Automatic annotation (TrEMBL):
InterPro entries linked: MobA-like_NTP_Trfase (IPR025877), Nucleotide-diphossugar_trans (IPR029044)
Official protein name in the record: Nucleotidyltransferase family protein
Gene source species: Roseobacter sinensis
Domain of life assignment: Bacteria
Record carries keyword Transferase: no
Organism placement in taxonomy: Bacteria, Pseudomonadati, Pseudomonadota, Alphaproteobacteria, Rhodobacterales
Any one Pfam family match given in the protein's UniProt record, by short name: NTP_transf_3
Amino acid sequence: MTSDTVSDLPIILLAAGQSRRMRGADKLLEEVDGLPLLRRQAELASAVTTGPVLVALPPAPHPRYRSLDALAVDRVPVADADEGMNASLRTAFAALPRGAPAAMLLLADLPELTKEDLRVVLQAIDLKPEALIWRGATEDGKPGHPIVFAAPLFEAFASLQGDGGGREVVAKAGSRVALIPLPGQHARRDLDTPEDWAAWRAERAARNSR
């Protein structure tokens, strides 16, 4: 895979979940860096590829669509989003352009990920030609996101059911998974409850005040 190919890989952004643990709020519309989190993540994805950015969303109408106004991303409604994450994966991978050699999968609820993190994972693809998956990891080696899947794995997403989050596809790759260390807990730090958000914002304010 050449560096030219890496620069135009499609990126899938998963944003069809229901934020059930937020008790009425929507975690993907919480503000991060002055933007709704979903828009921030979509802008990150758009900044690192010249390929399409596909955003898996609940069926319209939904407030998340407004947060993407004027962004050149492909909105991909997931008709059966209530089923769980695998419905989003089935739908989004089916919407990929034909002939894509690989695709990056990015969760919308990881607010510490940066453009540089995404680029580091994309650039690592050339370094592990025997791999089928290139996956961001925490600084202590725990696997997380983003994840790049090579095209031979795309078909496996078509039969996913439930809320496994694609773990079955990762398992199919066996040892052919390259972990790419990212700073801190960028690859795994998600915020699912109001308490998570409050704690994260307090941590961030403390870091910025030093």
